[in-house]
Design brief:
The chain has 119 residues and is mainly α. The protein contains 6 helices and no strands. Bound molecules: magnesium ion. The site of magnesium ion (MG) has 4 residues, from α2 and α4.
Length: 119
């Protein structure tokens, strides 16, 4: 069901998808975190051994771009599902973390500094 980019509506669709298949029994936080990491690794694998120029060239190929989109879709699915199981709002937790990062890395001190890793 199209959700027009609405994450809350997408979450409802994900819940319905899982209920229809009776998959909730498999959705422990640990297993969903494993799924999330596995899908993120599948996304990373698409870029493995490619430099930035190669990646940009490959993204012009529709089949490759679709593979990237599919893996991003898998990552978002697992992230949304994990948040459901943990009773968290994904946007709220991301905003809270962004606020912490703003405080930890003031723009006037970290502008242009990409050596800093967000933890
Ligand atoms: Mg996948």
């Amino acid at each position: 069901m199209p959700t027009d980019g609405d994450l809350e509506a997408f979450g409802e669709d994900v819940a319905r998808f899982c209920e229809e298949r009776k998959w909730s029994q498999f959705h422990t936080p640990k297993d969903l975190a494993i799924g999330l990491t596995t899908e993120a690794s599948e996304l990373l694998e698409l870029f493995r051994f490619l430099d930035e120029q190669d990646i940009q060239a490959r993204l012009g190929d529709q089949a490759f771009a679709e593979e990237v989109e599919d893996e991003i879709g898998d990552v978002v699915f697992f992230l949304v599902r994990l948040c459901q199981v943990l009773d968290l709002d994904p946007v709220e937790v991301a905003q809270a973390k962004l606020a912490k990062s703003r405080e930890k890395y003031p723009a006037d001190e970290y502008e242009g500094d990409n050596w800093t890793v967000l933890e």
